[in-house]
């Protein structure tokens, strides 16, 4: 984790549903962060219960994969990743615009297999990462002279290919 956090107190097995402030008490980052973790845990659990391990809206082609006929990369066709939403382990992934496999925003070095032959499973790899003001200066508080106040969690997604061996 990037950031100066006192401690992480979230424990799903305690089944807490919220953190309640009390008057006249010291406030620390751990309480606020635990509240955010409780809400995120409940939201992900709800989505997993309704959608399952992975899935998208019934209407729409979020992350639909299309083989492109053009060949901008060494004569190999590229893949187009459709715009839309998809959930993986309860985490919302959003792709605002169709994008080529080789130009993914979360994976600028994505490359297609060198020979272009064979069969592949296409899957969505998803995780959360912390972003600090060093990486995104826009989260600094300019009204106070620009101090680093808090980090942000960001969903990162990458469409990946897994080669499938022939079963003779």
Strand content: 25-35%
Strand order of the largest sheet: 1-4-5
- The ordered string of helix (H) and strand (E) elements is HEEEEEEEE
Structural class: alpha+beta
User: What is the rounded distance between the termini?
Assistant: 46 Å
Q: Report the count of strand segments.
A: 8
Cα-based radius of gyration, to the nearest Å:
21 Å
Ranges with pLDDT <50 over ≥5 residues? Answer: none
- What average pLDDT do the residues reach? 90
Largest sheet: 3 strands, antiparallel
Total number of helices: 1
Choose one word for the global shape. Answer: elongated
Helix content: 10-25%
Describe this structure as you would to a colleague.
This protein is α+β, with helices and mostly antiparallel strands. The protein has one helix and eight strands; from the N terminus they run αββββββββ. It has one helix spanning 29-51, and strands at residues 54-55, 65-67, 79-81, 84-88, 91-95, 99-100, 119-131, 152-164. It is elongated and about 65 Å long.
Summarize the structure.
The protein is α+β, with helices and mostly antiparallel strands and 168 residues long.
Give the topology.
Blueprint: H1 29-51, E1 54-55, E2 65-67, E3 79-81, E4 84-88, E5 91-95, E6 99-100, E7 119-131, E8 152-164
Antiparallel strand pairs: 1-4, 2-3, 3-6, 4-5, 7-8
List keywords for this structure.
168 residues, alpha+beta, 3-stranded antiparallel beta sheet, elongated
């Amino acid at each position: 984790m990037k950031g100066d956090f006192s401690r992480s107190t979230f424990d799903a097995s305690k089944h807490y549903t919220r953190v309640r402030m009390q008057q006249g008490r010291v406030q620390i980052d751990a309480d606020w962060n635990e509240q955010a973790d409780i809400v995120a845990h409940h939201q992900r659990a709800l989505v997993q219960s309704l959608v399952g391990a992975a899935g998208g809206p019934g209407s729409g082609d979020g992350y639909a994969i299309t083989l492109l006929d053009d060949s901008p990369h060494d004569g190999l066709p590229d893949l187009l990743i459709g715009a839309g939403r998809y959930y993986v382990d309860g985490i919302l992934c959003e792709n605002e615009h169709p994008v080529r496999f080789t130009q993914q925003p979360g994976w600028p070095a994505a490359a297609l297999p060198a020979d272009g032959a064979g069969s592949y499973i296409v899957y969505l790899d998803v995780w959360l990462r912390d972003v600090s003001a060093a990486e995104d200066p826009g989260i600094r508080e300019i009204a106070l002279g620009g101090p680093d106040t808090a980090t942000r969690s960001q969903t990162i997604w990458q469409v990946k290919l897994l080669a499938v061996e022939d079963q003779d």
